[in-house]
Each structure stands twice: as structure tokens, then as C-alpha cells.
Amino acid sequence: MKSRPLIIVGITGGIGSGKSFVTGIFRQLGAELIDADKLCHALLNKKSVCKQVTDIWPTVMDHNNEKVDRKKLGRIVFEKKEEIEQLNKILHPIVLRQIKKILAGIRRKKREVAVIDAALLEESNLSHICSAVVFVETEIERRERRCKESRNWEKEEISRREIFQLPLEIKKKRATFIINNNNSEKETIKQAKKVWDDFNNISQTDKG
Prior knowledge:
CATH class: Alpha Beta
CATH superfamily: P-loop containing nucleotide triphosphate hydrolases
Number of strands: 7
Helix content: 40-55%
CATH architecture: 3-Layer(aba) Sandwich
Shape: globular
Number of helices: 9
CATH topology: Rossmann fold
Number of domains: 1
Mean pLDDT: 91
Largest sheet: 5 strands, parallel
Radius of gyration: 18 Å
């Protein structure tokens, strides 16, 4: 790729769709990866954020380790829309500031592509700083199987969580590129490389 303003690519899709696999391909091709979900998880270990969270939901405090018990928190906030929105109001503004700071560092290194892997790319307004959005499309049966294998989730857990997210069809419609992850890894890699080449055609100014 020729020298140009940083291309910021957001990766979205359903839970268990294979977003991390696709971001891994882009990373191998030269992109810098920003994992927004890991940033959120790390925030819950910060004393200031931990206090905000446990002031609202005292039962999620892990007193042995003096940090938030994420499993307990998940069971609470994914029961009601108001609960998850309250948590997002705490975490999302901080994560957005962190990501902008990371992007500044990536620019200083003169990298050309940064990929943001975020489960709530649209919901957290991260999509607004992206030059392009890639939607990873995967059928529900495959997603359920992956979540069962990797997270030991029952099949109902995906729908229980996604009900509080923007519908997948809307995310897909808003995306710049779509990668179908319903076939072999080889096929997904082929599509991802094609999308990578298409980043050259993105008409945009530097964002973030």
C-alpha cells in the first residue's frame, strides 16, 4: 500500500461469528490490532472503574481479588436493557479515549491500517471513527457451536445477549465489506485478502 492517511477498519458481526479470526488475518497482512473488548475487560480491574461498577452492583465484587467478577456482572447486565446501558455509559467513553490514544501511537509508527475488533462497534459509536466496517457473516448454528466449544455457553445465551445489540441485518447493511465465514478457513482467508486489497480504494480522510 502507498503512503496515505491511516485506514481505520472496524470489525463487526454476531457473537461467535469469527471476528477474531478475521482480525488475525488482517494482522498477518500488516494491520495493527486494537481489541476493544480486552480494553473493557482490563478496565474492570482498575480501582476507579471497579468502584463505579460495584457501587451500582455490589454483589459483583470479588473480595478475594478486589476486582469485578465478570461472570456475575454478565448475569446481571444481560437481563435488562437498562442494566447493560448503565454499564456501557461507564465503560464506552473511557475505551473510546483509550482507542484514540492508541491510534495516535499507530500513526506515529506510520502504519497504514488499524483494525478495531469490538463486539459493540456500532453501539459504542466506534464505527464513527472508522474509514470502513467489515461485517463477518456466520449462520447461527455455527455461532452456537463455537460458543459452546469455546465458552461453554448454552445455545440460548447468544440470543439473550444479542437482544440488547443492534440487529445483525442492520449491522450488515451498514457495513462497507461483508465476509462470509460459513465455509472453510481457506475460503474466509481468500475473502479477507480480497477485502484487504480493496482498502486501497477507500476514499477517506484520516479519522480518530
